[in-house]
Amino acid sequence: MLPTTGARSPLFALAVSAGFVLIFIFGFLAWQSPPRIPFPHGSTHVEMSITDNKAPISIAEIVRLLYSPLRIAPNEPQFSFLDDGTNLSSLSLPENPRYTKKLGRDVLILDLETRPLKSTEDFEQGVYDWRKLNHVSGGVFNHYTYALIHGYDYKFIHAHEFKDRHATWIKPSALANHIKDYKFIVFLDADATFRFMHLPIEWMLNYWKIEPKHSITMALDPWDPNEPQYNSDRFNRTYTNTGFMVVQNNPNTMELLRDWHECPDDTRYKGCSEWKQPKFHEQSAFGEYVRYDYEDYIKELPCAEANGYPGVQISNCQGKFIRHYWFEKHLIKKDFRENMMNAITLPIQRIFAENAGGVIVEQPENVIY
């Protein structure tokens, strides 16, 4: 899942140190039994002191250092990675990519929930345990860590539920309330993950040829010709999935989001109230009504690009860039773990590959001197 690496990064030494810190932390958490560990409260800036002679370092800095040798530039011509087997694969950007510099905090990575994180409840009781982390926290941790790696802004919005419609209807209003402060909002459901955490969203925007006119980018749902009635609107057109959305701040976005938000009130679209509760709620309303008024401002991606996960055969929805685990949700935590462990162990592997610090000693003869 990682690109081939070149020359040693100038931050290599720091990355190694950071890696050892995280290994110690993770090892300590896993070793404790019973897993009741006291935690400090009252600060959102978590610090860890490396030695008594150095200032504390934040988890944000540790994560950035770990991933600094891995991060891909927004306009890197080619992205190489190991597929789910052991084959090296490569993807290339189109010529003249639009995004050549990091967007930083002009991008918001957004989580939106009506339910609290179970892991937070455990943490506040002093019983946080990685092994018991559910898929919601696993997905949120993936999104937050991705924001830290690339310097994007991040928000977890805890929204109150509607009284007359399904909870997923909170999406349009939350997007509308925050898009004015950003160039892009990248939203993911808790069961959707970034497959390559070292690959920036700017690279994906270039790969997908997202233009300034595109207000919303979504991936199509799987579609089976043997069961065409599923995941299709009344015109037999495949739905787009709202589990992953890239929302761009342009002159058409607010109107689109407002029409979508008001759709179940039958304000502009008569009959849309049908989708207050039945599946697929806001997704069905968008597919049945809204997208037909905003065709030029919506980018639809193939299901294979940003939907589904390995093993899904229909429409080849195997999550090339964004994985959406409609089922098998336990794999969300596995994805996050594998991403993190790759980043942590790469600098350690370099020590042995390059014999840094002379850790490898040749013993030409197996004798006692």
Automatic annotation (TrEMBL):
Q: List keywords of the entry alphabetically.
A: Glycosyltransferase, Membrane, Transferase, Transmembrane, Transmembrane helix
Domain Nucleotide-diphospho-sugar transferase stretches: 168-295
**Domain of life the protein comes from:** Eukaryota
Q: What's an example GO BP annotation here?
A: protein N-linked glycosylation
Where do transmembrane segments lie in this chain? Answer: 12-31
Would I find Transferase among this entry's keywords?
yes
- What molecular function does GO assign, one term? glycosyltransferase activity
Matching InterPro entries, A to Z?
Glyco_trans_34, Nucl-diP-sugar_transferase, Nucleotide-diphossugar_trans
One GO cellular component term noted in the UniProt record for this chain:
Golgi membrane
Per the record, the similarity remark reads:
Belongs to the glycosyltransferase 77 family.
Protein name (Swiss-Prot/TrEMBL):
Nucleotide-diphospho-sugar transferase domain-containing protein
What is the organism field in this record?
Trematosphaeria pertusa
The taxonomy runs:
Eukaryota, Fungi, Dikarya, Ascomycota, Pezizomycotina
